[in-house]
Amino acid sequence: xxxxxxxxxxxxxxxxxxxxxxxxxxxxxxxxxxxxxxxxxxxxxxxxxxxxxxxxxxxxxxxxxxxxxxxxxxxxxxxxxxxxxxxxxxxxxxxxxxxxxxxxxxxxxxxxxxxxxxxxxxxxxxxxxxxxxxxxxxxxxxxxxxxxxxxxxxxxxxxxxxxxxxxxxxxxxxxxxxxxxxxxxxxxxxxxxxxxxxxxxxxxxxxxxxxxxxxxxxxxxxxxxxxxxxxxxxxxxxxxxxxxxxxxxxxxxxxxxxxxxxxxxxxxxxxxxxxxxxxxxxxxxxxxxxxxxxxxxxxxxxxxxxxxxxxxxxxxxxxxxxxxxxxxxxxxxxxxxxxxxxxxxxxxxxxxxxxxxxxxxxxxxxxxxxxxxxxxxxxxxxxxxxxxxxxxxxxxxxxxxxxxxxxxxxxxxxxxxxxxxxxxxxxxxxxxxxxxxxxxxxxxxxxxxxxxxxxxxxxxxxxxxxxxxxxxxxxxxxxxxxxxxxxxxxxxxxxxxxxxxxxxxxxxxxxxxxxxxxxxxxxxxxxxxxxxxxxxxxxxxxxxxxxxxxxxxxxxxxxxxxxxxxxxxxxxxxxxxxxxxxxxxxxxxxxxxxxxxxxxxxxxxxxxxxxxxxxxxxxxxxxxxxxxxxxxxxxxxxxxxxxxxxxxxxxxxxxxxxxxxxxxxxxxxxxxx
Amino acid sequence: xxxxxxxxxxxxxxxxxxxxxxxxxxxxxxxxxxxxxxxxxxxxxxxxxxxxxxxxxxxxxxxxxxxxxxxxxxxxxxxxxxxxxxxxxxxxxxxxxxxxxxxxxxxxxxxxxxxxxxxxxxxxxxxxxxxxxxxxxxxxxxxxxxxxxxxxxxxxxxxxxxxxxxxxxxxxxxxxxxxxxxxxxxxxxxxxxxxxxxxxxxxxxxxxxxxxxxxxxxxxxxxxxxxxxxxxxxxxxxxxxxxxxxxxxxxxxxxxxxxxxxxxxxxxxxxxxxxxxxxxxxxxxxxxxxxxxxxxxxxxxxxxxxxxxxxxxxxxxxxxxxxxxxxxxxxxxxxxxxxxxxxxxxxxxxxxxxxxxxxxxxxxxxxxxxxxxxxxxxxxxxxxxxxxxxxxxxxxxxxxxxxxxxxxxxxxxxxxxxxxxxxxxxxxxxxxxxxxxxxxxxxxxxxxxxxxxxxxxxxxxxxxxxxxxxxxxxxxxxxxx
Amino acid sequence: xxxxxxxxxxxxxxxxxxxxxxxxxxxxxxxxxxxxxxxxxxxxxxxxxxxxxxxxxxxxxxxxxxxxxxxxxxxxxxxxxxxxxxxxxxxxxxxxxxxxxxxxxxxxxxxxxxxxxxxxxxxxxxxxxxxxxxxxxxxxxxxxxxxxxxxxxxxxxxxxxxxxxxxxxxxxxxxxxxxxxxxxxxxxxxxxxxxxxxxxxxxxxxxxxxxxxxxxxxxxxxxxxxxxxxxxxxxxxxxxxxxxxxxxxxxxxxxxxxxxxxxxxxxxxxxxxxxxxxxxxxxxxxxxxxxxxxxxxxxxxxxxxxxxxxxxxxxxxxxxxxxxxxxxxxxxxxxxxxxxxxxxxxxxxxxxxxxxxxxxxxxxxxxxxxxxxxxx
Lengths: 673, 481, 376
Description:
By secondary structure, chain A is α+β, with helices and mostly antiparallel strands.
């Protein structure tokens, strides 16, 4: 081709490409505007709605598994230590004195919580990922029995009642406990509990058992007064939430009492202290109703211990000190004499040693008003916390030897079990189960996520608001955009890979942007998380799968008839009478599968009086049933309320033609996502 | 062996090598004054001409010393940065020049002056990101707390030349040190709390951007009113010097408060020592360093000098001599060793603004337990302190839950007064606190108990826009005697 | 027969006997196959009941007595006084219509005029038509069966599976139900019966998903033209079920269905005190029927009626098959003849009336405690 021809062809080609590009641009802008009904929207990437493959998302890919110790149990003779390794689907038997692994048992389904029978012949295992309880015969160290329970069982307690042996199981994903008879495993009852039951304890005489919920619920506060549903509005957002400590009768599973832990949550363990007739639960005292103008003085949250005494009175006492904080209290152990309690602060890598005699003496002399306000007094812990023992990264579970001399600590993110000499209060040994996984960015990111070191005075970690990456069910008032303005619901971090941008206003394009300097400024008030840590944190967050809302046995099965009807409603393009539903008002447009979000902002008529904008990011709906409350400020306490109370002029989907049957069907479908 | 290491290090110049473990930075003052002139400033009084800052290396012999304040008339007030290598001190080049902050050269060269503050600078401290914190101007010796221009704390980032002012107290703010959480701990006068021997001093904290002034210790404990030179000793204790009278010759002892409850734990740190103390500092792990007169008063002769002692933190009854040069008073000693860097603080200030916001959760929450002071507040008055007068900015009626939210002028000492329904003044916050531009300042109550976290309740004031008291309403503006 | 005329006639016929018996305690009825009330104890505002209109009464397995009133839920304390819970404590509405206990969990389920409330372990949880799948806020009836909670509402029956949170609605759209206004519901081990206002009774088999309708075959609204042919009327005000016997209250008579078929009673032809029956409690084969004129108690053969006389005195009348009625005065009477709710066990009977709460004390010596416990 001669040069002139080449130039001509090139010009024509350039014009053609340019024209095609320009045409494509205008077509795509028009396409997006047409679909969203937003005439001002500029060009957005096609990937917002197209080309997402769930199997390629980080959380769907296999991830390295580590021998991270979860629940611990010590044999009655003190010679054996049992360790649940949930990531490896194993339970380990170790020599409790010499700290060597003796036997390993394969237990499928993420063995997490452990409990021994009284004689130490059977080990019961809560398998979190397969929603079951397994029984191991300790002679053969093999699984001999199994029973499906509720979603995500995490802990269990054994006791003997006049009606026979009982196991109480906390099903963290189901909102109820399972009461089982263990020989063979059989369900006796399923008493409802608070939200995310996590810790469980039983009195040795079998008269009482207790289950503590990890999340607080708005309706439980003030003796239930806030259970009064508001027809519309926000007043309920400004009432303190409470988590529930449920007292059961272990024989038949009847609920005897529901105790409110006001403005407290994230209790993950529970211990009964027979010598004092106390029930102890570590807790995070959350102050989400106070605008976050500062972090100092426990302004956002602080750690404490709930003491439920024999008279049924609850006192919350602080574990934190005025200038030093011990975030994310998780594990709890109490010696047999009821003299000492040990609390593992998973965010601060510390065991706090509580002298229960001193605590009892303080409680004895304190009047009722002082007890009621005790948790606010950050100088109080010095009265009864007699030592702080540093540990490795992320101590989560504790167990004491029968003589109380050895405290076993599952140092989860270092793949080790540490032993603390309780007389000297020094670390006397370590059982190394793995290499700590420092080579794994997900593991490194989890360390960042669970570490309080990035917050002023180490007051809280990412996990303090996002247990296991999920929600705490509360709304917060950040002061960066004005005190009292833009109340924000805590969004889940599970299943967020591929759902950028982040934040309710959709202004944070990436996770490092979201979790870096911005968060340091509005919440942590310290230096931003270093860049390397931030990268690891991002990797970890993207590896978190959506919250699981279907029982293990139901996974992969067809939808129920009601859910199938709901699915059809979700994807409806016209009303029953044939009237078309505008594209921009169809559920599937903004909540487009497979992530059920188009990652764009929409005005769905939910702007509140103190909100700065009409438009909010369309959240993904994976695991939506487990992430109440809903809407950007958390005003809708249930999925139903989205449409029964907070729907405005069919802006949030066209719901005006739905019957109550259809609404119930839709919700059944949403619960399957 | 330590001697060999020390010798090698000294000969090697000390620049490229890590200093030997156990090196100390000392402030030495002459045994006898070389000038008969009265001291003009507090530093002249504390560090008379000839005072010097030196590096003392193990095994702590008088020949193991290197002069760090070379070429200066007087020097002292040394501080070691968390990196364990950077040493700042206050120095004065000659009799006509001001005291300024210098950075020492560990190889013994001439130190580098890092401040050029009018009126001088003193009390260096090192915050996160190697930010230098200091007080300025240097107060006069005869009126250190309420001079015409009280000393304020300033911060200077590495590489910058213009320091930022951090404090706006009506009295001098002195002796800053940096806590592990990044806050600056300092000393100023507790307004309205005089003692027979003068104004009562107390410890306060402030963030590195000057926000969140907070009472730390000494406000209401009835201890000795003179407080100086606080230091974070370890994870449990903050030590400081205390005296019954401001006069330098009086007994000055090391006291401390526990970090766990600083307002309720003040006590002598060296209970068995009945000798003047000039410094208490962190030492080797589990130890403190202190500079004392010989502790045994009976064996102390008139010429005995201050010396450096070691104290085991878990057995403070006994002090062990560490170093004494009979030709000098060793009045201050600090370890030349790295320590964990303090936390940084992410500032939320907006320099474009001239106001800050105050959210009080419940003006009626108070530790005052009897009399009119417990009456509910019907009105709250706000005033800005200027010199000796207070200018009323305005009043507001708190919400039913006692909360209020308002915008106030930034960077001036503020006075808050609560009046009951009968118009009686029931509670008063003296001019000790301020807000920075764009700061959102929260407080739990009015004279609320120390170390009190807030209740988890939504203040009614948060449901309304902040009341603006800037500029002051004309009817209420005007000086109040 | 006009109810008022029949009442008058009954009064005239029994007047001499009444006069004779007034001076001495009534001789207990002998050989009655169910407990007979000897006297009534009445409770009202003086006992802490906030409103005299009591809609429901229920004794839980732990022995505590609960009542639902026009103005709140009350529990009787050990001191005998009633402690009130209202909306401020978490109750969904002050007007309580029915109370039932989940025998497995011990939870109390409370039907109110604005939602369903669970009282469990001292705490209330509210289900409304806006925060849950509850069909309608006006909840007339509630029952627990098969681990599920069943409700009768003004817009259909509903079923809550507490384990999954799933609600199902049964109304005229998806069942054979004539209309959605459901007044009563009773869950049995296998079946669920729904009393529909104007629609008879719906029998639902949850396992099979089937529905069967029982309507009055004669289709006459005011009269039971053909006795024993089916439900006495379509206006089902309440139902009860026990051991295979289904009892139906209507405003036009009373009916029972058992293995032999339907049996109907109307006041004109049977000892039934009034056609206006509004509540029935079944206990050991006996129906305790609350109506506008008092209480009828029957096992289907023998009847004992309790009325309030013109002067407020108590009257009880024994009807045996083939024998003339025998009426006796009582030293005490029901608090009011308008009986809205009943609870009966082996030890006592409780009556919720529109003017207070009554306790019926059974005749005869108290039974040994061991026997009482065993029977409970």
